[in-house]
Amino acid sequence: MAPSSYVPNRLVFSYVLDWIAIIGIAAIGLGFREASPNHRPFSPVDPDISFPFVEHEKISTGLLVLISTIIPAILTASIALVFTPKLSTARGTSILKTWKYKLWEWNVAWMGLALGLATTFFFVEGLKKLIGKPRPDLLSRCDLDPATVQQYAVGGEGSQLPLWNLLVSYTACRQPDRSKLDAGFVSFPSGHASFSFAGMSYLALFLCSKFSISIPYLLPYPYKAQKGNAAVDLSTWDPVIGGDISDQPMTNCAPVPLRDQAAAPPAYLFILPLLPITLATYVAGTRYSDFRHHGFDILFGATMGTVISWTSFRLYHMPIRRGAGWSWGPRSASRAFGTRFGNQGYVKERIVESRDLEAGEDSRHAHSASSSEP
After folding, report:
1. What is the DSSP string of 299-343?
2. 47-68: string of b/e by CB count within 10 Å (b at 16+)?
3. What are phi and psi of 223, to 5 degrees?
4. Cα–Cα 20 to 30 A to 73, which of 26, 44, 225, 297?
5. Is 102 domain-assigned?
6. Domain housing 131
7. Would you say which domain of life the source belongs to (predicted)?
8. CA 359, CA 7: separation in Å to the nearest integer?
């Protein structure tokens, strides 16, 4: 019987819950953002926080959202809908089935991006408000009165210390704009560096995956690939269990010399991941030149954004060198909301079970029977 468009409702609902969870993480981060930060005591003669306050930042918050969120979202969706599956891959495959793969690739492309950005937002805002580190331009924001500064001394001997050893409370500041003053105590980590590297690193990984931009590697089976159409046939191939057909062992084939088993991609393709990383580096660099963050704040933020984006990418996408550009497939319907101890992962043996995205009419009873498994 021909495949139908049946998709188990429990599977669809489980991914709706995934999106709700991602939004929830971002909502908690928004709550952190609205909270008042910790105000760490500071020295009124510290040169590291004596830089001038720059009114007009090179990269505004709105421009940061465009760079870290909107641009990656548009590009990943466009690539998922246009380039996957390839035309040669989809030859002989029904239009409905081809669009299932396209829409699934689009969904997981955005899920990975959204999870990375939401998690970054959560940690950035939480750490900013918890630590309360002064910005390099804090004294310009604070507007201290030198005549009364010793009255606000905190810690140690207090006002008995000489001025260069004195730590004072933020209450010594005469700044009438409380929001401007509070913003002077959120230097660590750099939000611009974190978000730009989270969004742009994810985009770079996505481009490397879809356009096969990776360091050459040796295949586990040193045999020649089968001749004929090298594209994967979607009518019989599942991206979750299929992998790259060149990775499959071939029988009755002569071994291939090591140097002939792989080759470097065209050099011009490296421009694709280089552009987003360069843009993220520029955004992070402006935070130093605008006196908004210390060097360590920027480096930590960039590292955190990169690590989170890599983790969110790998949750939804196969390894770049071995995944042939595909994402991981959906969970099994019977394990859509979790799995019990002793089960391996969230996908049952798809070789012997009907696929969740391609279940036929005669497989609906199998789905309903398997749904009782925790």
Report:
1. HHHHHHHHHHHHHHHHHHB--TTTSTTPBP-PPPGGGTT---TT-
2. eebebebeeebebeeeebeebb
3. -125, 160
4. 297
5. yes
6. 46-136+187-215+231-240+269-336
7. Eukaryota
8. 7
